[in-house]
Write a structure and sequence with these properties.
Strand content of chain C: under 5%
Structural class of chain C: mainly alpha
Distance between the termini of chain C: 33 Å
Shape of chain A: globular
Number of strands of chain A: 2
Mean pLDDT of chain A: 84
Order of helices and strands of chain A: HHEEHHHHHHHHHHHHHHHHHHHHHHHHH
Strand order of the largest sheet of chain A: 1-2
Number of strands of chain C: 2
Strand content of chain A: under 5%
Radius of gyration of chain A: 30 Å
Shape of chain C: globular
Number of domains of chain A: 2
Radius of gyration of chain C: 21 Å
Number of helices of chain C: 20
Chains: A mainly alpha (about 625), B mainly alpha (about 100), C mainly alpha (about 475)
Largest interface: A-C, 48 and 58 residues
Largest sheet of chain A: 2 strands, antiparallel
Mean pLDDT of chain C: 90
Oligomer: heterotrimer
Largest sheet of chain C: 2 strands, antiparallel
Chain lengths: ~625, ~100, ~475
């Protein structure tokens, strides 16, 4: 395939956002900033249409991977950039573009009247562009480029309301934590260049399938996992995500629920043949995912800020995706990624509607209560999305979560147990949120007396997303097929994917297992019941049992945040020491000391020239004696 | 002991005395006298060695040295008188304009 | 034109003389000569680049006693760096337009440009040394006469420190030339003819003497402490020329003189020199984190950035050399832009501290945009110029000695830790009680034009670096085999 044969839709994916951003920056921002969203919404529509068109193409078997231009070259070393339109990429792209467009529409209503309206839309769309680039990259260097760009967009959006100190700190924390992860990704990419001489995915897959041993592969694999843990907020690098809720709700909904955080999972999907070739690494990923999922689910149940509950929920679900990957179920992980995008975005936008109704940036459990009557549409959407999250049949979340639990169950051992506990925990925290926000108001809550339903521009996207979350179960078949299409044409013997390629026609998403499904639903019901017990039948429980040491433990995520803060302050103390003491006092002190030394030496020597004639005569005598001695000898 | 040895001993010690006086004493007049002593000692040695080697040019040098010593004594005395009249005193240790 | 290269370095010098006598019209003369200089180097670059056979322009003049000859040559490395000098010089003149300074200010900048051009053109080691030292004089005056409060101390420190380093370089050059004479009976200072085999067992001494001279200029830890003071006290345009071009002299010296003369020794020295370079990427970042003065912070970041250039160049791999050399140009653009903007802040408020501002994003949005853009480029955001150079340099370093690349990646990670908090403190945080933010008006059209040009270049090199890399390749291939 040549560049001329690349379908229009692929070019439009990039051309539309770039045009919209440039037009918005140079024209709209100057003339009519409050209309900056118009070209951008048009671009969203174009991108969504293109993405779905490309998805249809891939579905009928026309995926492609093509180098388009040479980015850098030196001697025999070269980096090419290109496009990879294949199953996994285009499946996630379709979700990202659809969910993203709805959130752009929501943001047009949510951010109306904000002084930085124009700036918000431009950066938001820049993020959108970066995500498209990340999903269609055909080599690691290009992926790294868009990965970093996504990080920068996140920094600018989390710190959007930069007058607030909490927002500034959260933005910095998000960027620096991602940078620590990017340390792993950059080093991994450099090592890939060193080991394989190329970074293109399809060529690397060929090399991985060749069965040769590559000494650097374990290091590369671990570094890729490290990078994914930072971006996808896994333990130990998850702590930036809850604080990133300082950004406006559309940011949280798009970036920190549906797209940016899934970039880590996507990275692992793209590198799967490399990672699966390292013995023990998938197992490690599974355990990291399971631990994070459980840890975050427990903490989610203790938080009071609505958006933070959802943030920890995202961390937990990303853990589930990692667990699925670690068990070798690439398709399941992608399926959950897509379904999660729908219901998490819907939940975030509901929380945004609540906050908007209260005229606050975010809402706390203390501020709400009994919103069922005053915000019917939001309540309905929330209910749908919550049931989907908890994994209730026949909503979308049931199918994806059940597939993961099934895989864990078959693996057995600790992972199976943790999987079931996570199912209970997820139901617990989401139903706790539902009950506290929408049902009977407790005396400790303010009830939001002036809350009213959001206007259509805010309500309709939420409804669409919730319906999508409900219906996403129907996507199970197509996702299956997309993933197969993605690895289509791959050589046989590719580690981690034998089950896909060598058995054509065999569905590789696990069939419905009644035991697991039943157990999963039972655990969810258990969690919901616990939430009922603690919030509804005993109102005020949530406020009474918190206090003192327990609250401090919850605030600091059972001490992990304290540890991280200690580490960060140690680094800045090291910097202070290096800059002020070591450099200024030590190294520069030596340099400045030379002038003092020179002056002291000069003063010492000057003592021999005091102007006294007798001293001079002594010197003359000595010199003459020396010369005479030399001459006479 | 030969005459030459005696002359060397005498003039050598006279020269050393003169040198010691110049180096160690602080009064300018004394330093001047020391200088004259050194020159005189050199003169005596020269005269003896002129006779010893029958060298007439050495005697010419003696005459030159006597003239120089006289001139230098005049200039030195004039300078010392100038210093004393100007109130600066004649103590070498106190005249430190050439201090480094 | 029979002596194009002489005209190239003499034109700015002539301009300096004209400025010195021009009185109140000096800045117009400076602008004219700077534009002329840019035109000359552009013409030379195009003429050379379009014809592969004309890849190197030579100019050979008379030979004097002891083999000192007038020998100039311009390959793509030299032309690239002279192009950077000319461009930054023009930027400096435009950026300093509103300053009330004596005509000697403009004369000094043009003289500096002339001397720098001479360094990049000279192929006779004597003239190389003469031009090398000649750059110190205008810079000394720029810092000492038009700098900030502590300018004299900084100027003297800069001069003595760099001069002392160059003395070792001179000794090394003398040893080289006399060894050559001893072995072959011919006096010559011609770089193409001299070789280090005549030195025998004294070769390491001479190599390290040369390296010492270049290391002070680069600057390499631990010989770097002149840089923060010089940069902080220099006027904005002075810092731009200092950081933008003068620091590159050190790396250029390594590439042109030290590495071709001592190929095996420079390879064996990789653990030490490369280790210092890698260490400086981390050390510079840590020191930058501790600074409260914007200019000092950017100065330390320069130390870190030059560490990357060095890592790439020392690795002797094709991608490392290409990336390190491109990074020289990148750093000139990025750090130049940052220093200019700090200069704009200082002109308006006479303050440079991080705590002295605040909330500038709402008062001066253009400044905030450009500062953020340049900060991201300096931090190595892919898509902007910093990433390409750093990536290629690290790739080269990894192939040569892996531990160096590990430290380098750590340096990349740390870069964000000083740059973003500083950006936030100045532009996002609210203005404190002692803040001078009220005095800061947004950029005017002239300042915006300068920064648009620099930013456009940063984006161009970041998105399409291949032609820029390809331009330097023939020269690099010829230098380091």
């Amino acid at each position: 395939m040549t560049a001329a044969q690349v379908p229009w839709a692929a070019w439009l994916l990039f051309a539309a956002p770039v045009t919209a951003i440039l037009f918005g920056f140079f024209v709209m921002r100057r003339l009519k900033p409050e209309w900056t969203h118009v070209p951008i919404l048009v671009s969203c529509a174009v991108v969504t249409a293109s993405a779905f068109w490309l998805a249809a193409e891939v579905y009928t078997g026309h995926s492609f991977d093509l180098n388009l231009f040479r980015f850098a070259e030196a001697g025999t070393w070269a980096v090419d950039f290109g496009l990879r339109i294949d199953g996994p990429g285009v499946a996630v792209l379709a979700m990202v573009s659809f969910v993203g467009s709805l959130i752009h529409l929501y943001a047009a209503g949510y951010m109306k009247g904000d002084a930085g309206f124009s700036r918000f839309f431009l950066v938001f769309h820049l993020f959108f562009l970066a995500m498209i680039g990340l999903l269609t990259a055909n080599n690691f260097v290009q992926l790294y480029l868009f990965w970093e760009l996504v990080g920068v967009a996140s920094y600018l959006l989390v710190g959007f309301w930069f007058h607030k100190e909490s927002a500034r700190k959260a933005a910095l924390k998000a960027f620096l934590t991602n940078r620590v992860g990017d340390f792993g990704l950059l080093l991994a990419v450099l090592l890939i260049v060193l080991q394989f001489k190329i970074t293109h995915f399809h060529l690397l897959y060929l090399k991985a399938a060749s069965g040769a041993a590559f000494e650097l592969l374990p290091v590369i694999g671990v570094l890729l996992v490290w990078a994914a843990c930072a971006k996808s907020a896994q333990f130990p690098l998850y702590f930036w995500l809850p604080d990133a809720m300082e950004g406006p709700t559309p940011t949280s909904a798009l970036m920190h629920a549906a797209t940016m955080v899934t970039a880590g999972v996507f990275l692992l999907v793209r590198s799967w043949p490399l990672i699966a070739a390292v013995p023990g690494l998938p197992h490690l990923i599974a355990w990291i995912g399971a631990f994070t999922a459980l840890f975050a689910a427990i903490i989610a149940g203790t938080k009071k800020d609505l958006k933070r509950i959802l943030a920890y929920s995202t961390v937990s679900h990303l853990g589930l995706m990692m667990l699925a990957l670690g068990l070798g179920q690439v398709g399941v992980a992608l399926f959950h990624l897509i379904v999660h995008g729908f219901f998490k975005a819907a939940l975030f936008l509901c929380a945004g509607n609540i906050a908007h109704a209260l005229h606050q940036p975010t809402a706390n459990v203390d501020d709400v209560g009994g919103l069922q009557k005053s915000m019917r549409l939001t309540y309905l959407s929330f209910l749908l999305a919550a049931f989907s999250l908890a994994g209730v049949f026949p909503l979308g979340g049931f199918f994806s979560k059940d597939a993961i639990l099934d895989a864990a169950w078959h693996h057995g051992g600790g992972l199976a147990v943790m999987g079931m506990l996570v199912a209970a925990g997820s139901a617990f925290y989401i139903f706790r949120m539902l009950f506290l926000a929408f049902y009977g108001a407790r005396p400790e809550q303010k009830r939001a007396p002036h809350a009213h339903e959001a206007e259509p521009i805010l309500g309709v996207p939420v409804l669409f997303l919730a319906l999508g979350a409900a219906a996403a179960g129907l996507l199970k078949g197509p996702i299956e097929r997309f993933v197969v299409m993605g690895w289509h044409g791959m050589p046989s013997g590719l580690p981690g994917l034998d089950v896909v390629l060598n058995l054509p026609g065999e569905p590789f998403l696990p069939h419905l297992n009644l035991t697991v499904a039943g157990l999963g639903t039972f655990m969810a019901a258990l969690g919901a019941l616990a939430a009922w017990r603690l919030t509804m039948s005993d109102p005020g429980f949530d406020w009474r049992w918190r206090g003192g040491a327990l609250e401090a433990a919850f605030e600091s995520d059972f001490g992990w945040k304290t540890f991280v803060d200690g580490f960060a302050s140690a680094v800045s103390r090291l910097a202070g020491f290096t800059g002020k003491v070591l450099d200024k006092g030590g190294v520069d002190g030596l340099v400045e000391g030379t002038s003092g030394f020179a002056r002291a030496a000069g003063a010492a020597i000057a003592r021999s020239a005091q102007g006294r004639v007798n001293d001079y005569l002594w010197w003359m005598l000595a010199g003459t004696a020396l010369l005479l001695g030399r001459v006479l000898r | 002991m030969s005459l030459t040895a005696v002359v060397w001993a005498t003039t050598g010690s006279l020269f050393s005395f003169g040198l010691a006086i110049v180096v160690f004493r602080r009064q300018l007049l004394a330093m001047l006298l020391g200088l004259e002593l050194m020159l005189a000692a050199v003169n005596v040695s020269l005269v003896h060695h002129a006779g010893l080697f029958d060298d007439a040019e050495a005697l010419a040098v003696v005459a030159l040295v006597i003239a120089v010593a006289a001139a230098e004594a005049v200039v030195g005395l004039a300078l010392i008188l100038r210093m004393r009249r100007g109130g600066r005193g004649a103590d070498a240790a106190l005249l430190t304009e050439l201090q480094g | 034109m029979s002596h194009p290269l002489t005209i190239l370095w003499a034109a700015p010098l002539a301009g300096a003389v004209v400025c010195a006598v021009a009185g109140s019209r000096a800045k117009y003369a400076a602008l004219g000569f700077s534009a002329l200089f840019v035109g000359l180097i552009a013409a030379l670059g195009f003429a050379q680049g379009s014809n592969a056979a004309l890849a190197v322009v030579n100019e050979i003049g008379p030979v004097w006693s002891y083999g000192i000859s007038y020998r100039l040559s311009a390959d793509s490395l030299s032309i690239g760096l002279i192009g950077l000098t000319a461009f930054l010089n023009l930027i400096c003149v435009v950026a300093s337009w509103e300053l009330e300074v004596s005509p000697w200010y403009w004369a000094c900048f043009l003289a500096l440009a002339s001397a720098l051009t001479g360094v990049f053109l000279a192929r006779d080691l004597f003239f190389f040394y003469v031009f090398w030292e000649a750059t110190l004089i205008p810079m000394f005056f720029i810092i000492g006469l038009w700098g900030s409060s502590n300018r004299l101390h900084a100027a003297v420190k800069f001069f003595l420190f760099t001069f002392a380093g160059s003395v070792f370089m001179l000794l090394a050059l003398l040893a080289l030339v006399s060894a050559h004479h001893r072995v072959s009976g011919v006096w010559t200072w011609d770089l193409a003819v001299l070789d280090a085999s005549a030195l025998g067992s004294a070769a390491p001494l001479v190599f390290w003497g040369l390296v010492l001279g270049f290391a002070v200029k680069i600057p390499m830890i631990p010989l770097h402490t002149w840089l923060p003071d010089a940069h902080t006290e220099a006027p904005a345009a002075g810092s731009v020329m200092l950081a933008g071009v003068m620091l590159k002299m050190g790396v250029y010296g390594l590439l042109r003189v030290a590495m071709p003369l001592f190929p095996t020794l420079s390879f064996d020295a990789l653990p030490v020199l490369g280790g210092l370079a890698a260490f400086s990427t981390i050390y510079g970042a840590l020191c930058a984190m501790a600074q409260t003065d914007l200019k000092r912070m950017i100065a330390y970041s320069s130390i870190a950035h030059l560490g990357f250039c060095l890592l790439g160049v020392l690795s002797r791999t094709s991608q490392g050399l290409a990336g390190g050399t491109l990074q020289l140009v990148n750093h000139g653009l990025t750090t130049g832009a940052l220093f200019l903007m700090v200069g704009f802040l200082y002109e308006r408020s006479h303050k440079r501290g991080l705590a002295d501002f605040g909330d500038l994003a709402s008062r001066a949005p253009y400044l905030a945009f450009f500062f953020g853009f340049s900060t991201l480029a300096s931090v190595g955001l892919p898509g902007l110029n910093g990433f390409v150079g750093e990536f290629m340099a690290l790739s080269g370093a990894l192939a040569a000695l892996p531990i160096l690349a590990f430290a380098g990646v750590l340096g990349v990670t740390l870069a964000a830790a000083y740059a973003l908090p500083a950006f936030q403190a100045v532009f996002w945080a609210p203005a404190g009680p002692g803040s001078v933010s009220d005095k800061v008006t947004d950029l005017d059209a002239r300042e915006r034009a300068v920064l648009w040009t620099l930013s456009a270049l940063m984006l161009w090199i970041g998105l399409a670096p291949r032609p820029w890399l390809a331009y330097f390749e023939p020269a690099l291939r010829g230098l380091v085999r």
